[in-house]
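#lab-general

N.A. 3:47 PM
ok so I finally got the sequence cleaned up, no stray characters, all 139 residues accounted for. can someone with queue access submit it? mine expired

B.Y. 3:52 PM
send it over

N.A. 3:53 PM
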Amino acid sequence: MQATVKWVDGVMFLGESGSGHSVVMDGAPDQGGRNMGVRPMEMILVGLGGCASFDVMSMLHKGRQQVTDCRAEIEAERVDAVPAVFSKIHLNFVVTGVNLKEAQVKRAVELSAEKYCSASIMLEDAGVEISHSYVIEAA
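B.Y. 4:20 PM
back already:
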């Protein structure tokens, strides 16, 4: 796996993944940016949510659950020091579907957290307290 990050100007950067996809990152105006892209630390949260959601949806599809929507809502806290690393992250999965079995949703979230989500496990190994919850909604 590889990626490239190229400076554009100010505190704006263009990130390109090894698979050829690009994303603009920029800072807030008070940090010299123009608010033209996602913040780099927000990218970590988006990546974490994507990794965990991939796992959850994969397991629910394998379990033949009729999912019509899945959203990971992520909240994080950072330490008040430099470096301002994450101290806590909470992922809440809102899973919508037809006749969803709570046991399967619960198990998918647990397996992602404990076994499959590389991003979550890596952050926990670095000392970030990560918690998970879920809500099931009828379609």
